[in-house]
Write a structure and sequence with these properties.
Layout (H helix, E strand, L loop, with lengths): L27 E11 L2 E6 L14 E3 L9 E3 L2 E12 L3 E4 L39 H13 L3 E7 L14 H7 L7 E6 L7 H5 L5 E6 L4 H14 L5 E5 L4 E6 L4 H11 L4 E5 L2 E2 L3
Parallel strand pairs: 3-6, 8-9, 11-12
Antiparallel strand pairs: 1-2, 1-5, 1-13, 4-5, 5-6, 7-8, 10-11
Amino acid sequence: MRGIWLVAVLVTLAACGTASAASAPSVRYQANAFVLSNPQHGPQLCAMVAQSLPPQCGGPDIVGWDWNAVEHSAQGGVRWGEYHVVGTWDGKRLTLTEPPRPPEHRGAPRGRSDFTTPCPKPVGGWRPVAPAKATDRAREAALARARKLPGYAGAWLDQSYLEEIDGYDSNDPRSVERYANDPKRLVLNLMFTGDATARESAIREVWGGALCLSRAQHTEAELRALQERAWKEIKGAYSASVDERAGHVEIGVWVVTPKLQHEIDEKYGKGLVVLNGFLKPVGS
């Protein structure tokens, strides 16, 4: 397992706008989806869910849904459950073409950035150059300093050393607590625009662990500004994030078509805003 270790619960309501891409009625789409209805609206797809009881969420309507035909939870006029759904998309709603079934378990999403270190591995492997400054506090100080330096573009931790530990289990909190985030074994990766190595002396004043400095095309501030702009301008977006490692903004929409992605590339620059469709074409 690689990357910065974060433990968080997402408690965010989905945007209730409609997706920005329509498709021919013959095209069928599928998704593992949370479905919810309440006294204010009928069955709807949810990309994000507020983990209350009963839960709260919203999204596009589902045509042809029958709660009596599926197992579900109910409380206070709210009905919900998780299902694998298949249907056609008209740009605003999903019309079922077959009965819902239990959600399918799929692997990790493709196309996501990994957390490997782009710098060549030193002779003898990655190790601290000043062990006394390879501490959690020093790492936090290095990150804080990096964010204030000109051209800062992002940071991540390469923890590929975990793959070498027998018995390490990323799903076991005790195992994670024992082995992960070891400042004397991880590699701190920092990206900057321009000459990234010119920032090394400033970082080395506070950080003595393994360090890789690499070059980026856009600063973090530029990508955050683009994220905010795209979130406001792309109709039907339900999520927006910055992938610093990949150097682009990711926008969640209900359906992506090649035409829509081409339009986004023309507007924001090729590859700078990547659309992720919640509904995928059947067979993809």
